[in-house]
Amino acid sequence: MRETTPNTPADLFVIGGGINGCGIARDAAGRGASVVLAEMGDLASATSSASTKLFHGGLRYLEYLEVRLVHEALVEREVLLRAMPHISWPMRFVLPYHKDMRFESETPISKMLGLAMPWMKGRRPAWLIRMGLFMYDHLGGRKILPGTATLSLKGTPEGAPLQERFERAYEYSDCWVEDSRLVVLNARDAEARGATIMTRTKVTHAQRDGALWRIATEDAETGAKATHYAKMLINAGGPWVGDVIHDKIDLPSREGVRLVRGSHIVTRKLYDHDKCYFFQGTDGRIIFAIPYERDFTLIGTTDAEHDDPDRRPVCTPEEQAYLINFANQYFAQSISAEDVVWTYSGVRPLYDDGASSATAATRDYTLKVDATGGAPVLNVFGGKITTYRRLAESALEKIGEHIALKSGPWTAGVAMPGGDFPVDGFDVLVQTLSGKYPFLGEVWARRLVRAYGTEAETLLGEAKSAEDLGRGFGATLTEAEAIWLMRQEFARTAEDVVWRRTKLGLRLSAEEISALDGWMRSRRERADAAE
């Protein structure tokens, strides 16, 4: 770990190991800044592992006239896709149309249409949806992703799972992303460029000490305390950004954060094709139904106020029922709670712009620097996973006003670890890996390439059989992979492995997960004793 003293302070101390904190750390380290990052839990252990897992422009944000946000997100889809084609890939979204579809009543477009066309009573006309999709196709300078098409839902794979009343749909492009793996890869790349990444390290207090920040931390596992010094503090605490401002650094600030809970359900696989559905409800809200982990369907999300970042977000019975009922307005075969195999929920730390509802609150990011009392602090509000890299670049612009940086923006087009192959090269990489390691089979090989890209071969090394990879924990998870995740990707517990570095928790039994946790704990204890 990089030791910081008043004589050798870090340039930046980042609080928060979610996507914004790790994205800023990576960008700053790549510009020659010395960076220390502290995350009180595991990387991506809060909001950044609980998204809907999409790199998307935010089609519905056009109704709120957030054109700048949508433009930036649409441009970023393809920038990010090129940098990480293992954990991100194009997907086609099917938007079934029916005359009863309605606007969320508080959007600017809804209000304008209500005045101009009151007889529509909040319904979305087809021409308006098509106009929105035309803007979506052209706002971002799309080069890789195909544009919008009109589909018949009669006698087609896309129409087969849906109720007969849906006869046509619009199909457009966005991208999938493995959200928690994205965070880990940013942290790994930041560390490779010189940053110090400290997980399970809580910032207990920070205060200005002349031209520096003095930051007190505590190791969540051992209780060990330490003091760090930095020229600038970055508060990327996500849901805790307000708590950091008011409780950790005692900063007088009127800036606020609005906590909005988004919940998802995962069901058994509901249809056979690989496209996603964009469903619009009679209440004006939307949800997605997305192919997930080969054998499942992901459905979400909700928008509910959440009052306390320390209260663990869970998908409530009411939210689960809402998502099930929403999906049942579209699917021909109804689903029930018995079909749900897993739920998850995260808290979005949105900038409090005074919006009347959680749904209407802006998803754009806001960056505020306070340097009035000496050493500067940058507070990060809001943001969405698609624009994390641009948020980091914007943060570095503000940081550069206070800290000398050796170079300018660099992250666009630079591959993440394992992502150094063409966007259309995934299948070739799977074939190459299967050819070199025939014992894997296609399903296992695809999983490894999806997770590790070109580094999958490094992980497997000289193995000639599954036995060469050590103990098997179930669902193709081996000792060799677990060691890689502990050494290379900051994993310390079974939960880190099966719910964030992978989603093998969907396939492993409670007993298998417990056995993995015991093995990891024993390995950590041996490593600690050897130091």
UniProtKB/TrEMBL annotation:
Keywords: FAD, Flavoprotein, Oxidoreductase
InterPro entries: DAO_C (IPR031656), DAO_C_sf (IPR038299), FAD-dep_OxRdtase (IPR006076), FAD/NAD-bd_sf (IPR036188), G3P_DH_FAD-dep (IPR000447)
FAD dependent oxidoreductase domain: residues covered: 11-388
BP terms from Gene Ontology: glycerol-3-phosphate catabolic process
Keyword Heme: no
CC cofactor: FAD
Pfam family, one: DAO_C
The name this protein goes by in its record: Glycerol-3-phosphate dehydrogenase
Origin species: Alloyangia pacifica
